[in-house]
Amino acid sequence: MTTRPSLLMIVPPGWGRFWQQPLAAGNLTLYTHGQDTYAPGAIDYALGFRPQPGFLKTLPQLKAVFSLGAGIDGFLSDPNYPKHVPLIRFVDDTLSREMAQYVVLHVLLQHRGERNFAAAQREAKWRQAMLPRPTETTRIGMLGIGEIGTMAAERLRDLGFPVSGWSRTRKTLAGITSFAGAGELDAFLAQSDFLICLLPLTPKTHHILSAPLFAKLPRGAYVINVARGGHLVEADLIAALDSGQLAGATLDVFETEPLPEASPIWKHPKIIATPHVAAITSPLVAAKYVIDGIAALERGETLKNVVDLERGY
Ligand code: NDP
Ligand code: OXD
Q: pTM score, two decimals?
């Protein structure tokens, strides 16, 4: 008789019910951390997003960990992450699509001056205005052009914007200019009227969005950070907005989440802030991803999207 693999769900309190039902479709013994009683040695697989540091190390038979997010910094910030256990990140077109929608929405809100029209409507004023810049000369720079950055870049390219991307390795993407490596970062920044951060958070990218970088953007550039709060020095952003170096910013992620009520970001007139909702992993889609992944691992197959722990993403 073969035993069913066990899966421990490490999800925020109250979220277990969203995962329980779709995961029940797999041939798995399910446990919810903080709710069910289980022997640590009985856990084969775990899924989560930001588990308590040190916790995964207490599961001695763990075969693999599934991240509920595309970003896995919530695991790698754990100095005791058990390095022999493969970490599989969530990569899925539906997630990339939601992210691309968010990016396109915020580029267009700024590009088409929508906030001015909304203000005019509140005053019942008919204030016509031209686009501040023609689409053909509004240059988009994707800082990080991996799974999500590529889809967002392609959507913006298809809307007529000139698009370029910066990555560690050179890309060949139709109609998108590739800049690669630290040596090409300044040239990339100098031609980015919109800068969209879609990098993973690693020691190399931590606080990359800071005063020296903002100074290299064209004056009046717009910054969208949809990756991680740890990429941004918030005080430097506010200074760059207040000096006019930057025209505005959209932030979906923050160094401290939830963003504290006292943060000046909430009320800054040039910032749009959203509560880390650019894309929310769908339990239905992700449960299938995890069920299929466990079945493949149990058959002895290797999975795509295993994180390179040394590289950090
Ligand atoms: P990928 O790993 O597919 O892409 C990462 C990109 O960053 C790649 O192009 C990579 O280069 C580049 N990169 C990494 N390190 C460097 C470096 N040191 N210098 C230059 N380029 C670098 O990630 P995804 O596109 O799947 O996700 C990106 C991030 O988006 C996630 O890590 C997560 O933080 C965030 N996210 C946020 C969400 C939200 O709701 N706000 C939802 C989902 C994701 P190369 O291609 O050469 O390897
Ligand atoms: C992710 C996220 O990384 O939701 O997927 O932030």
A: 0.97
For residue 8, what are the β-bridge partners? 31, 46
Choice among 50, 106, 228, 231 that is catalytic: 228
Low-confidence ranges of the chain (pLDDT < 70): 1-2
Kindly report the protein residue whose alpha carbon is nearest to atom 44 of ligand 1.
Answer: 70
Cα dihedral: 150, 155, 159, 161 (round 10):
-20
32-80: pLDDT as tens digits: 999 999 999 999 999 999 999 999 999 999 999 999 999 999 999 999 9
Please report, for residues 75, 178, 203, 254, the alpha-carbon distance to residue 146 in angstroms, rounded to integers and kept in the order given.
20, 12, 18, 21
Rg of the chain taking only CA atoms, in angstroms: 21
- Written as six digits, the tokens of 159 are 């809307």
Alpha helix segments (H runs only) across 146-194: 147-158, 185-190
How far is it, in rounded angstroms, from Cα 213 to Cα 240? 10
How many CA atoms lie within 13 Å of 124's alpha carbon, on the beta-carbon side?
0
DSSP at 33: T
Q: DSSP assignment of 78-113, as one string? A: -TT--TTS-EE----HHHHHHHHHHHHHHHHHHHTT
pLDDT at 132: 84
- Which of 281, 285, 289, 305 to probe ligand 2 with, by most ligand atoms within 8 A of CB? 281
Q: Is 219 a catalytic residue?
A: no
